[in-house]
Each structure stands twice: as C-alpha cells, then as structure tokens.
Write a structure and sequence with these properties.
With 308 residues, the chain is an alpha/beta fold. It is 39% helix and 14% strand. Helix 1 packs across helix 2 and helix 8 (158-169) packs across helix 9 (177-187). The longest helix is centred in the C-terminal third of the chain and has 15 residues, at 242-256.
Length: 308
C-alpha cells in the first residue's frame, strides 16, 4: 500500500516555526514527510531531525526528504534522549503533529479504522508494541472498559458498550474491527449517530489512545521541548481531540505564567518563572478550503509557544 498522508495545517505550522536558514529543527512526528519537507526547503546550512515511531513512515521519509536531515525511529516523547544521542544541546524549533496518519487509518492491516470490517483489531502505531486493541477488548474488565471509553472517547454510552463487549467476548474472542463495530452499533441508540459521525468513532479513539499511550507524558514532553529551545525558539503542536488540546493549552499557559500557585494562596510559593509566551490564545484551525479538501483536518488545532 502506498503511504499517503496529507499534512494538516502545513503552511500555518511551518510558518509558526519562523524557520531560520541555519537553524536546527525537529519534526517529532515525521509521518509522510510533508512538514519535514517544507522545513528542509527553508534551510540552507541548517539541520532537521525527523522522528517517527512508525517504520513505514520513516521508509517514505528516506525516499522523500533531501538535505541535511537525520531520521530517527523512536517515540517523540524521548526527545531529550534523542537529542543527547545526536549530541545536540539546543534547537531553534520543534513541531509535533499528534494525529494519526491517513496511511495508518486507511491501511486495513493496521486495524485503526471502524470502516474496515475484516481488519484485525490492532491500532498499534509501532508494530513492535506488545499490547494491541484486541488485547484490551478481550482482557480489560467491564469497569476498566467503561472508564476507558467514557474518559478517552468521551462516549456517553460507554457503560452499555463495555457491558456488551464483555458479553460478546464470552461467546468468542473479538478479533476484528467489524466485530467491535457491530457490538457498538447494538449498544448505541440509532438517533445518536447524528451527534458526531459514526457511532464507533469515539470508542475506536479511546482504544487507540490507550494502545499507544497517547496522553501519557505529553506534559513532560512539552516541558522537555521548551527546555531544549534556544532563545526565541518556537514550539508548535497540532492536536486532534479535546483531551490533547486541553493538555497543550494548560501547559502553554503554565509556561507563560510567573506564578502557578492556586488563586486562593495569599502569596506565591511556587518560585515558578515564565519561560516565554504562548502566541495562540485561541488555536489556529484549518481553513474552510483545507477542511473541504481534507475532511480529516476538521478537528485539528495548532498552538504555538515562543521561548524568551
């Protein structure tokens, strides 16, 4: 299968980095290489570090990206370790696109899509990961599934879905996306489909987040990223659902503040000092034209922070 992925907010995110020709930049989630390629186009004497945990993505980047680029097969949350291994102290800009690539969604073998009925229930961004969506669906308790689907999927019918998953797996293991979709559709009132797309969308999101531990350590990564920036360096983060965006928004607010003590404290005791400024009080969102050309970009939000 050809690796196809449309880079979301391409111009906006690369422009947000304010790329210097001789600077050092990091694309934490290289994917199909769209953002990386645009950054490289702006460099002359500078360097790009392109990271991805998906070996298929890196294979595409090896063919696509030309110039002074170092490709790294790893999780972007290891940013500090990666830069240490490359003997890089500080960089001028960091971009992180937290979304799943179109290739991963559209490739049935990866098991991300609720539209691929015969696909194995997998959802691992890195094939070497031990735990898949199939493992979670067939081993988590009803209470664990309910909490997972309710919190990560923001699904109001989580209790019913969890109960029916447990009932069905007692008959036979749930191994395909289609099996899970059937269970979800039987658990969700038909009229609810009007509230936000396919009835399985939220549950599949919840499972994907759990499989790949997408929310774990985002705050630590953001702090590491800011610490690795040169003065006036920029951090640009694209998120695709409210849970991620909430973390990014709060972290950027904390990084910008001179005090993060609770408001009822009579005086500051945190000794926190501002690291810079959030440039996006409101996130940058895709244009109507981009959404029309790439509907999957609709939920994207870009937030930008500049270090002082």
């Amino acid at each position: 299968m050809i690796y196809e992925h449309k880079s979301v907010l391409l111009e906006e995110s690369v422009d947000a980095l304010d790329v210097k020709q001789d600077g050092i930049y990091v694309d934490c989630t290289a994917g199909g290489g769209g953002h990386s390629e645009r950054i490289l186009d702006k460099l002359s004497g500078g360097m790009l570090v392109a990271i991805d945990k998906d070996e298929d993505a890196l294979a595409v980047c090896r063919e696509r990206l030309k110039g002074n680029v170092k490709l790294v097969h790893s999780d972007f949350k290891r940013l500090s370790e990666i830069l240490d291994e490359l003997n890089i102290d500080k960089v001028d800009g960091i971009l992180a696109d937290l979304g799943v690539s179109s290739y991963q969604i559209d490739n049935p073998e990866r098991g991300f899509s609720y539209m691929a009925s015969d696909a194995p229930l997998d959802m691992r961004m890195d094939a070497s990961q031990e735990i898949s969506a199939k493992d979670i669906v067939n081993t988590y308790s009803e209470a664990e599934l309910n909490k997972l689907i309710r919190e990560y999927g923001e699904e109001k019918f989580a209790k019913s879905i969890a109960r029916n998953i447990v009932a069905e797996r007692q008959k036979k293991p749930i191994t395909t996306c289609g099996q899970l979709v059937e269970i979800i559709e039987e658990s969700v009132p038909h009229c609810s489909g009007k509230r936000g797309g396919h009835p399985a969308k939220r549950t599949f999101q919840a499972l994907r987040i759990e499989v790949n531990k997408e929310l774990d350590g985002i705050d630590v990564f953001l702090k590491d990223a800011v610490n690795r920036l040169n003065r006036n360096g920029r951090l640009a983060v694209i998120s695709f659902h409210s849970l991620e965006d909430r973390i990014v928004k709060q972290c950027f607010a904390d990084f910008s503040a001179d005090c993060i003590c609770p408001p009822y404290f009579p005086k500051c005791v945190c000794n926190h000092r501002s690291l810079g400024t959030s440039l996006t009080k409101k996130p940058i969102e895709p244009s109507a034209l981009e959404v029309q050309e790439n509907p999957r970009s609709q939920s994207a939000k870009l937030r930008v922070f500049v270090k002082k």
